[in-house]
């Protein structure tokens, strides 16, 4: 019997089973099951996004009625050097975050998935930053890195004058470090769960073939963690482009505008200059940029094809 004939026969039997009195009924869940999630998404995601789109074509100071100004907000943003610099800075911080967090979280996650002694205790201690909010983490590190009373001021041989926030390089390094300290545990959890799902038979087969620990990690673990890595990177990209509270508390966009990322520039335009139309335009642009970059990552990586790492098992 050919494959086509066998598939057709199986489908016919399934249809008969659905119609057979007293037999098991196979049916997909109705739309009512998705209705609560659909309403929630529409109310708290789509509706605000539509309002932001409308507001981006208006002039509004927060009081009275918005005044339609067409493309004026967008034209001003195109001529704003701070806006252009903030986009490049947001992409730079996001790229640095991905480059720093991915290898560290990958190694820690794979290690935490193993049977090492005291692994559970050490993992629990390492994952403590996940319990803190971004605001609490930023306040903590702002105090620890204070140039007068913090750690840099007590170690001039390592930090020079101790003012890490006084230079562009130092401020960017602080933002990357604090973001990594907080979110590496989260991404390590992703890799830990994925590493524990790798079938042990793959490592046994590799060991029989004479593969050492490094060869097993390179040829077995990494390929099996491919989908988890793409998921982690997409989350890093979206989180890096939309981060705000860390910059607000640690650097306030300084020195000067050297750490004024797009999200912080949106805050300045809307809540300091009371130009909510321009702030909405920046927010919409940020959504578009984050979406495009995420889609590029998914497309280039082939994740959109949802190829299983379990094929052949």
From TrEMBL:
Residues 1-12 have a biased composition (Low complexity). It is found in: Cell membrane. Keywords: Cell membrane, Membrane, Transmembrane, Transmembrane helix, Transport. Residues 87-297 form the ABC transmembrane type-1 domain. Pfam families: BPD_transp_1 (PF00528). The chain crosses the membrane at residues 30-57, 87-113, 120-144, 164-184, 228-250, 276-298. Residues 1-24 are annotated as: Disordered. Gene3D superfamilies: MetI-like. InterPro entries: ABC_transporter_permease (IPR051393), MetI-like (IPR000515), MetI-like_sf (IPR035906). It is a multi-pass membrane protein. CDD domains: TM_PBP2. Belongs to the binding-protein-dependent transport system permease family. PANTHER family: ABC TRANSPORTER PERMEASE PROTEIN (PTHR30193), INNER MEMBRANE ABC TRANSPORTER PERMEASE PROTEIN YCJO (PTHR30193:SF37). This is Sugar ABC transporter permease.
